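Practice problem: predict the structure.
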Amino acid sequence: MGPKATRVILVAFFVICAGLVIADFVYHRHMEHPLEGIPAFYTIYGLVGVGALIMAAKGLRRIVMRSEDYYDAD
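Answer:
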């Protein structure tokens, strides 16, 4: 896959994401929780969740990571 195909896929992804955020403002949902009434709530929730997952993975890497010569020590 070349750089042009990658660019097309990324542009398509961002267009779909933007369309979903715009649809969130015009589509009426039946809410189960008051926080769901915040515009783009699921977008913000997903962004914060992914960010928290990345930070947790960075912290876990420091705990679990072994030295480079771990398997060559014998």
